[in-house]
Every structure is written in C-alpha cells, then in structure tokens.
Amino acid sequence: MELYTTLNNDEHNVSLEQFGEILETGDFVVRKFIVGKHSLLDGVLLKNSNIPVNILIGPLIRENEIILADGNTILLNNDILILVGKKDDIGIFKGQLKEITTLKKIKNFIFKLFRK
Predict the structure, then answer these.
(1) d(CA 49, CA 110)
(2) Distance (Å, whole) CA 9 – CA 75
(3) CA 78 to chain centroid
(4) Full 3-state SS string of the chain
(5) How does pLDDT run across 44-84, given as a tens digit for each residue?
(6) Is the distance from CB of 45 to CB of 73 less than 8 angstroms?
(7) Is there a contact between 90 and 29 (Cβ–Cβ < 8 Å)?
(8) How far is CA 31 from CA 43, 54, 66, 95, 106, in A?
C-alpha cells in the first residue's frame, strides 16, 4: 500500500528505484535473452515468436541500436531481448526454447549427413 501512496501523485516520472520496488513487490524479474544463430526465434516476427503473454518484452538491443519492438519486428541472431515477468515463467520459457533449439540443431545435423 505504501508503494501505491508513493506513486499516487502528480509526478509522471518513475525512478529506477521505484521501478525496482514495483518489480520486487509483484515478484517480477528483468532478464535478458540473446537470440542465437540456431535459435527458433532467429528470423521470426515477434508476434509469431510464441513468447507467452505473461512475459513482457522490453527494449530490444540490436548492435548499437535500441528498438521498442512491436509485433512486426523480425528477431535476428544476436538480438538481445529484455524480458519482464515472473521468474518461474521466464525460466520455463527459456527452458522450452532451449530444448526446441537443441532439437532443431540435431535435425539440421542429421539432414546434412544424409544430404551428402
């Protein structure tokens, strides 16, 4: 309740300290996710990425550019996504993506073996 009282004023800015307190109070975390070369997300529109709706996408960092991505942003190798969500939800998402990416690598390896 104290946080609400602090923020319920005419000031429109939220300090980083207040933002951190908001996240902690809601049991949220901020994590980075790097799109890898063999990632299932490489070359995919953000709206088709299957990132769960309970995980928010913050700024996307691409080389030296910071992008406020929307659904039509294409994710590329080495993009850094800033994710905001519950720690468990982000962990589950990253784990699922890692498993799928590993399967994609195995499939590509087998395909290359039999293509020769």
Answers:
(1) 25
(2) 38
(3) 13
(4) CHHHHHHCCCCCCCCHHHHHHHHHHCCEEEEEEECCCCCCCCCCEHHHCCCCCCCEEEEEEECCEEECCCCCCECCCCCEEEEEEEHHHHHHHHHHHHHHHHHHHHHHHHHHHHHC
(5) 899 988 888 889 999 999 999 999 999 999 999 999 999 99
(6) yes
(7) yes
(8) 21, 14, 16, 14, 27
- Tokens, residue 43: 């070359």
Global confidence as pTM: 0.72
Place of tokens 């499939």: 107
Residue with tokens 């498993």: 99
Among 91, 77, 94, CA closest to 38: 77
